[in-house]
Amino acid sequence: MAKLSAIKREVYDRGNGATILLYNAKKKTVVLIRQFRVATWVNGNESGQLIETCAGLLDNDEPEVCIRKEAIEETGYEVGEVRKLFELYMSPGGVTELIHFFIAEYSDSQRANAGGGVEDEDIEVLELPFSQALEMIKTGEIRDGKTVLLLNYLQTSHLMD
């Protein structure tokens, strides 16, 4: 074990979260959202808009319960069977958050409302061709880590073949 000495460290504990990628294998589409993220704006993203997978903080919920709530609130889709893939620390150098990653297939019949979030959230729901979403990673239009991970997982899993 390395010798420890007194070091001042900052850690931000914002709680744990969950994220889900909705996909439709028949239509070859995915559902993503676009919303303003102040941290990206502060760091030079001129519009502050970020395209990402549906996500939220767990608060006191289990990860699957959380992600089902977030899916209906943010995207308008009431998902059926969800599959948990993994849990990852996205920024362990200074943030305690552990994110639970899920995927679920969706269909048009599962659309319960228009989505868009609640309260002060201003969320645009995007149903995109899967190939376009992958291209948006290459062009820099999708810059969110959890979204890139889930889109790449979907590609390598061959669930869209």
UniProtKB/TrEMBL annotation:
Q: Name one Pfam family in it.
A: NUDIX
What catalytic activity does the UniProt entry give for this protein?
GDP-alpha-D-mannose + H2O = alpha-D-mannose 1-phosphate + GMP + 2 H(+)
Positions bound to Mg(2+): 55, 70, 74, 121
Could you tell me the keywords of this UniProt record?
Hydrolase, Magnesium, Metal-binding
Molecular function, one GO term: metal ion binding
InterPro entries named among the record's database cross-references: NDP_pyrophosphatase (IPR004385), NUDIX_hydrolase-like_dom_sf (IPR015797), NUDIX_hydrolase_dom (IPR000086)
The organism sits in which domain of life? Bacteria
Q: How does it assemble?
A: Homodimer.
Tell me which family the UniProt entry assigns to this protein: Belongs to the Nudix hydrolase family. NudK subfamily.
What name does this protein carry? GDP-mannose pyrophosphatase
Q: What is the lineage of its organism?
A: Bacteria, Pseudomonadati, Pseudomonadota, Gammaproteobacteria, Enterobacterales
UniProt lists the gene as nudK_1
